[in-house]
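Milestone 3.1: sequence recovery, worked example.
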């Protein structure tokens, strides 16, 4: 655990595109962090990244780096299938972790990682930066206190566009390496924000399809979700939508609150509309915040660093981080089976606990069947 006057010593694992966003966030907190190393299996890429960001040391082996450097925090920016091994290695070395989404490629992997945490730290937190803008924080408090009345109806749309060339990257669009399609890699941010605000879900009914992209996973999914509060939400996750938007809507008895943005928001992206019986109330009366902190990696990092200094579990960690991944597993199970799925269904004897594509993860491919038949 670091002290306020000792900046956290940080290393980055994975020097791909998303790592640059994390360096920008770390630079925004340069009074509290010192980036001392980068690791990538591609040694040349690690060296180039270190040079670009003036990082003192570059490695191509994570255990070697963990043994050589005295660290407080490691930022894991690898492809999803590599999250488990990297996070576990860091936790076992006594180092806190901030890991990119999705947390893992299965709920089973998530639970296996959590077993390596210890009371007081090290902990692993996952990148769900959309929770941390000032408007989302304000709405969360309004929901907690009941100031807007009962949550009734919600909309959660991630309508994005990814062309065929996007999926030329070998690990994209596969169950094994990415863990799923847009529900795991794209819509996960809006779904996490929705879940962090509305709380526990109780049932999901879903459908999914592969309509246009040459991928193993889905390229679109839809779901109807019930929450413990009684609220009902419709969700869409797409990578087939030329006019891209991320849209969340919450209808309460006292107001409608909407967020329309793409990859990040500030207060200007939110709309607060009173119910007719409160027609005279403006946004501030409904709970819109006066401060305007945009959603960003830097915003979440600030909360994580405070937790690190205090030795307490951060947000988007533990059960709070698991809820979104478990929801996605349930979405995939419902889409595949045509049945509603509840949290109680996601037990270790359920194949969707172990892989987002459930029994298909261990089933032989049609080509393998043909080869066996012709042997």
């Amino acid at each position: 655990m670091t002290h306020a006057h000792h900046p956290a010593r940080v290393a980055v694992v994975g020097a791909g595109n998303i790592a640059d966003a994390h360096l920008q966030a770390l630079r925004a907190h340069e009074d509290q962090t010192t980036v001392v190393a980068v690791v990538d299996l591609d040694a040349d890429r690690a060296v180039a990244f270190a040079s670009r960001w003036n990082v003192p040391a570059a490695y191509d082996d994570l255990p070697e780096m963990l043994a050589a450097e005295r660290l407080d925090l490691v930022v894991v920016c690898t492809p999803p299938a590599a999250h488990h091994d990297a996070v576990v290695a860091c936790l076992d070395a006594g180092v806190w972790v901030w890991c990119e989404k999705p947390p893992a490629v299965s709920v089973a992997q998530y639970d296996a990682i959590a077993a390596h945490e210890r009371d007081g730290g090290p902990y692993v937190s996952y990148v769900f930066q959309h929770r941390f803008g000032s408007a989302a924080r304000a709405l969360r408090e309004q929901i907690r206190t009941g100031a807007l009345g009962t949550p009734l109806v919600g909309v959660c749309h991630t309508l994005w566009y990814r062309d065929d060339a996007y999926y030329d990257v070998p690990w994209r669009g596969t169950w094994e390496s990415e863990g799923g399609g847009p529900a795991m890699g794209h819509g996960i941010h809006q779904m996490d924000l929705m879940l962090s605000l509305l709380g526990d879900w109780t049932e999901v009914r879903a459908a999914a399809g592969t309509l246009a992209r040459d991928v193993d996973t889905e390229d679109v999914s839809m779901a109807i979700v019930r929450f413990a509060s009684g609220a009902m939400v419709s969700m869409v996750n797409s990578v087939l939508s030329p006019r891209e938007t991320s849209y969340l809507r919450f209808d309460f008895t006292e107001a409608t609150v909407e967020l329309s943005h793409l990859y990040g928001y500030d207060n200007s992206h939110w709309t607060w509309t009173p119910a007719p019986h409160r027609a005279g109330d403006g946004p501030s009366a409904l709970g819109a915040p006066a401060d305007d902190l945009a959603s960003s990696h830097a915003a979440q990092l600030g909360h994580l660093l405070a937790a690190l200094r205090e030795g307490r579990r951060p947000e988007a960690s533990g059960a709070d981080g698991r809820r979104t991944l478990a929801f996605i597993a349930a979405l995939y199970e419902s889409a595949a089976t045509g049945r509603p799925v509840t949290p109680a269904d996601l037990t270790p004897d359920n194949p969707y606990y172990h892989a987002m594509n459930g029994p298909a993860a261990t089933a032989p491919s049609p080509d393998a069947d043909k080869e066996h038949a012709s042997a």
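The mean pLDDT is 95. The chain has 14 helices and 13 strands.
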